[in-house]
């Protein structure tokens, strides 16, 4: 079942880009199970990440890789706060539905 998570990264936009680059992910090379990834800068200047994953296990596996890279790059401090939600529905313009509670995937 699809899950959504919101991560209070505590990272600056520059640090976020360093981690993303080191992990080698972008729009053409998403992590396994990753469906949607939004990085947004909050009023305090740090990045929040909103993601949708095929499963919580895939999200947590990816999170371990991200934590290792953050540690390697010296982007530390407290562990980011991560809140998980069960996906009820995902709507995006011009793309196929993502299977979730209350969503039927059509051919």
Radius of gyration: 14 Å
User: Which strand-content bin applies to the residues?
Assistant: 25-35%
Cα shape = globular
User: What's the domain count?
Assistant: 1
Number of strands: 4
Distance between the termini: 19 Å
DSSP summary: helix tally? 2
Q: Return the CATH topology.
A: Alpha-Beta Plaits
**CATH hierarchy: architecture:** 2-Layer Sandwich
Classification by helices and strands: alpha+beta
Fraction in helix: 25-40%
Order of helices and strands: EHEEHE
Low-confidence stretches: 100-107
CATH class: Alpha Beta
Characterise this structure:
The chain is globular. It has helices at about 15-25, 55-75; strands at about 5-10, 35-40, 45-55, 80-85. By secondary structure, it is α+β, with helices and mostly antiparallel strands. The longest helix has 18 residues, at about 55-75. About 15% of the residues are buried. Strand 2 (about 35-40) and strand 3 (about 45-55) form a beta hairpin. The protein has a single domain (about 5-85), classed as Alpha-Beta Plaits (2-Layer Sandwich). A 4-stranded antiparallel β-sheet has the order 2-3-1-4.
């Amino acid at each position: 079942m699809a899950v959504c998570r919101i991560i209070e990264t505590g990272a600056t936009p520059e640090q976020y880009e360093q981690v993303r680059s080191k992990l080698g992910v972008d729009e053409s090379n998403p992590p396994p199970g990753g469906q949607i990834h939004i990085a947004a800068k909050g009023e305090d200047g740090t990045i929040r990440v909103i993601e949708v994953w095929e499963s919580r296990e895939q999200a947590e596996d990816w999170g371990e890789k991200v934590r290792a890279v953050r540690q390697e790059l010296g982007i530390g401090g407290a562990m980011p706060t991560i809140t998980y939600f069960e996906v009820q529905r995902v709507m995006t313009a011009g793309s196929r539905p993502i299977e979730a509670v209350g969503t039927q995937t059509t051919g």
